Amino acid sequence: MGLHQTEDNLQQFTATITNHREVAHNLVWVGLRAPAAALREARAGQFVFVRCGDPASFDPYLRRPFSLAAFDVDGESAALLVRVSGRGSRWLTERVEGEQLDMIGPLGNGYRLDERSRHLLAIVGGERQPHLAPLLPLLKSAAARELSVTLLIEAEREAYLPPASLLPPEVEYQTFFREAGDSAIAHIKPLLGWADQVVAAGPDDFLAALKKVAGAVYPRPDIQASVERPMACAVGVCLGCAVENERVGYLRACREGPVFDLWKMVL
């Protein structure tokens, strides 16, 4: 495993695949051995930029962003939870134990767990498959601090649902399925009076619905939300991952995000 700084002071490193298993339909857990130095400053919600192709080829040309689903500095280990959605993610999930991956990161702005928090509410949705990966390290940290943690997660149907085995056993796991006309967002109101911190992840339409429902509650809770955006460069140059924010205009998901204050986002 190697680690070096790129010209723009980013960490580029090599990680080795240690395990690989499908945990749900089109959802693959990829375990990694990675340098401790690369993981030392990692935070929940950050991502790595992975070269998804043969080292001797430039096809596909662009790297792909994947949230860190787990990381352990002392154990020099990390993991990705990969939704198979295109050529890059398919290539990655077809790798086997012992193969090496070229990565840059961790990148972006992650979640912050308030030291005063005692009750954490997490809500996750997505198109067919919920985007749970960025929240997994935060849920682990919250459980280790003995917080009460409730996760509401919404998927198209049960086959797309991440298994409870990915979560700390202390997390209360509530599932909802759109095919049955059910929504996780419809169930948050009773929990907003209980939670002293709220975090979320999902596509814009899911976050917009969450913002609308939570906005009708007083006092309005603070909500940190991870957005989903395609990323071509992941260093803030191409501006292809812009997220509109009140007062400040457009911010970049790869640099100022992907975690933002939900109330400042224009959705």
What would you report as the Rg, rounded to the nearest angstrom?
Answer: 18 Å
CATH fold call of the largest domain: Rossmann fold
Globular, elongated, flat, extended or rod-shaped: what is the shape? globular
CATH superfamily of the largest domain: Nucleotide-binding domain of ferredoxin-NADP reductase (FNR) module
Separation of termini? 41 Å
CATH level 1 name of the largest domain: Alpha Beta
Give the number of DSSP strands.
15
Could you spell the SSE succession in H and E letters?
A: EEEHEEEHEEHEEHEHEEEE
How would you write the strand order of the largest sheet?
Answer: 2-3-6-5-4-7
Indicate the percent of residues in helices: 10-25%
Largest sheet: 6 strands, antiparallel, barrel
- Supply the number of helical segments: 5
